[in-house]
Amino acid sequence: MKADLGLIASFEANLFLVLQTILVHDITEFAPYSLQLLTRLTEINRSPLPTTYMQIFQLFLSLESWQKKATPKSAHCDNLSSQL
């Protein structure tokens, strides 16, 4: 079966919009899955990587992404600890 490179590029572009949204907005529930998908796509892609990959890598290298604070504890955890 021969892959249609245009379809693959279109799929990646659409997927990257979702991955970028998850990573930019720090949606912690989906971030690990996004990174796993990105890693796998990077592994199976041929060199040189398309510009969409380079754009998302710039997100990782930006100073803002390293300055984010850890996700605060939920109010539920605070209530539990005050009851102990």
What does this protein structure show overall?
With 84 residues, this protein is mainly α. The protein has one domain (5-83). Helices cover 70% and strands 0% of the residues. The protein is built from five helices and no strands. The protein has helices spanning 5-24, 31-44, 51-61, 63-67, 75-83. α1 (5-24) runs antiparallel to α2 (31-44) and α1 packs parallel to α3 (51-61).
Report the order of strands and helices.
Answer: HHHHH
Radius of gyration: 18 Å
Topology, number of strands:
0
The separation of the N and C termini measures 61 Å
Q: Approximately how much beta-strand content do the residues carry?
A: under 5%
Count of spatially separate domains: 1
Write the topology of this structure:
Layout: H1 5-24, H2 31-44, H3 51-61, H4 63-67, H5 75-83
Give a short summary of the structure.
By secondary structure, the protein is an all-alpha fold.
Keywords for this entry:
84 residues; 70% helix; globular; single chain; mainly alpha; 5 helices
